[in-house]
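Weekly modeling sync, notes
Attendees: S.R. (lead), two postdocs, one rotation student

Agenda item 3: backlog of single-chain predictions. S.R. asked that every request posted to the team notebook include the full sequence so nobody has to chase files. The rotation student volunteered to paste the first one in as an example of the format we agreed on. Action items at the bottom.

Example entry:
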Amino acid sequence: MKIYNKYILCCIGSLSFIMSSFANVTIPSFFSDHMVLQQQDNVKIWGWSNPHEPITVTTSWSNDTITTKGTNYAKWEAVLKTPKAGGPYTITIKGYNEIKLNNVLIGEVWVCSGQSNMEWTASAGIDDAETAIAAANFPNIRLFTVSKHSSETPQDNLDGQWQTCSPETMQYFSAVAYFFGKKLYQELDIPIGLINSSWGGSYAETWMPESVFKTNDELKKASEKINPVEWAPYEPGRIYNAMIHPLTKLNISGVIWYQGENNTANSKFYHLIFSELIKSWRQAFNKEMPFYFAQIAPFSYHEFAGVEVRDAQRRTLELPNTAMVVTSDIGDLKDIHPRNKKDVGLRFAQLALKKHYYTIETVVESPLYASAEVKNNKLLVTFNHADGLYATSKTSQFEVAGADEVFHSAKFKIKGNQIEVFSKQVKEPMYVRYAWGNTIEANIFNKVGLPMSSFTTQLIK
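Predicted structure, as returned to the notebook:
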């Protein structure tokens, strides 16, 4: 009998060893303790396993058991139906091994991306940094920073870790994203998940799928105008492959974006580049998600490159479900990295609260050029979001031109949400532009104190 029992124990031990050797159910890094999943959605969760390995997924918010198995490519996927915002919850994934995810929240998830002004942290230096850091104790705001990587091919995973928002974690996270998320949390009173995937000194082309360039000759031509830079990859698709593609099966609310400074190198193409970036991301995420972006601030770029990028960003608003934060009043002409990140984040949040969550009714967008018509040798220019227009100085930042496209300084008169613009030097005006210079800071605002965007009606060639 003792020999028989030893035989059984030996078999059990061998079986345990065999089973442990198959214990290879794994998941991407963004499925972890402290994560946030999108509320009231059919959320995908996925990973890797042995082929045909039986897998079950259970959650503490539901009695349902989701069953699936590994494919012949050693991958698996399941869909979880998430409830209204809340938590914390647990998720248990069982194959030959078991993974348990703790302190999971259900709420709103946003991707925050771009170059250095999005990447910029409180520890790098922002206005009133010490106070902001000390107050950053929000357990229901979760932060995930994607580590910098590049790749020649699309990847399925990336490096990063979900963290609870605290003074210790906030100070090394995107400041713009933090202030955006903090305002959403305070207004919505639900968990907020922020995924910061940004890289200072990067071109927009590197944030787009390389395949887009193969089917668009103009886009390919634009990408050939950029040069290698010291701090980031410059080849199309390299950052996208490693830092965005792995996220594209996630369920998210939307994107906030702050980039463009580097693309002053090919500013005349930026409207095309940026429009195609937004389209390609929406296709990759399979969602017409909100895409809100910050207009770059005035700075001493070469020729008219800075204002050309700003105007390209303004014209990208023709795409549906987009909106723009104008920053010409909160920049720093001596520093390409303005330290006022709080107002940028708050302006992003106001856009989301009105246009995506419908919780506020106030004006949240800057005055934007809408149309112009000739009346008695003058141009009557109409603006959107222009209630209560006022000028902070008598200095005119308007210029007009005739058929020769030679611009002359013009006088202006505010008439409601319209502005009359005229110049004695231009008898038959055809074109108008405003704040057309790299370093010109807006001096016209709407009733909520948001600055008018620079613009030109002339075709940029």
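Discussion: group reviewed the output briefly. The domain at 368-456 is CATH 2.60.40 (Immunoglobulin-like).
Action items: rotation student to repeat for the remaining queue; S.R. to check formatting next week.
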